[in-house]
Amino acid sequence: MMQLFRCFSLCLLLMCLHTLSAQSEDHAKYISLELAGSGGLGSINYEQDFKDFGKWDLTWRAGFSLAPIDKNNGVGLVFPLMINARFGEGTSKLDMGLGQGVTITTKGAFFMLTTAAVGYRYQKETSPWYFKASYTPLISYLVDFQWQHWGGLSIGYTINTSVK
């Protein structure tokens, strides 16, 4: 249980340090609720732009979710961590990403899955709200290679609307 607390504390500290160091820069920040998707059954996520190339930009995303595993492992604390690229102008964008889903169970087990995402993101230029539908396969490679088809729906909010 102590290892779980240390891992969670380290992740939280790294996210806070990155957020504090980036506050002087003009990068858009988002928070979202995702049903299914890369966090399992559902997750809450923080996302931040870090590079703008005009018609496309790069973001990083970190999330948190709880997932029941089984009797032997208990409940999993899931941390989906991703790098995303958004392509397009205006209200409709193609959203693609790759990352790792780190799961630590309440019984001390540790799992990792590669997460990927290909989706459609819709956000009116006058609104801080956005909606996203994605194909988010879960890829396991530790014991043997497995590809699990999965998808997700998100509703998100732009925290700092002046830089959207």
Features:
disordered N terminus; 10 strands; 12% helix; 8-stranded antiparallel beta barrel; 164 residues
Average pLDDT value? 85
| Class by alpha and beta content | mainly beta
- As a percent range, the share of strand residues is over 45%
Assembly status: single chain
Helical stretch count? 1
Assign a percent range to the helix content: 10-25%
Tell how many strands the DSSP assignment holds.
10
Low-confidence stretches: 1-6
How far do the termini sit from each other? 40 Å
Radius of gyration: 16 Å
Total discrete domains: 1
The largest sheet has its strands arranged as: 1-2-3-4-5-6-7-10
User: What general form does the structure show?
Assistant: elongated
Summarize the main sheet.
8 strands, antiparallel, barrel
Helix-strand sequence: HEEEEEEEEEE
Could you explain the architecture of this structure?
The structure is a single chain. The chain has 164 residues and is mainly β. The protein is elongated and about 50 Å long. It contains one helix and ten strands. Strands 1-2-3-4-5-6-7-10 form an eight-stranded antiparallel β-barrel. It is 12% helix and 59% strand. It has one domain (49-163).
Task: Provide a compact summary of the structure.
This protein has 164 residues and is mainly β. It has 1 helix and 10 strands.
Helices and strands in order, then pairings?
Layout: H1 2-21, E1 29-36, E2 42-52, E3 56-70, E4 74-87, E5 92-105, E6 110-122, E7 129-135, E8 138-140, E9 146-148, E10 151-158
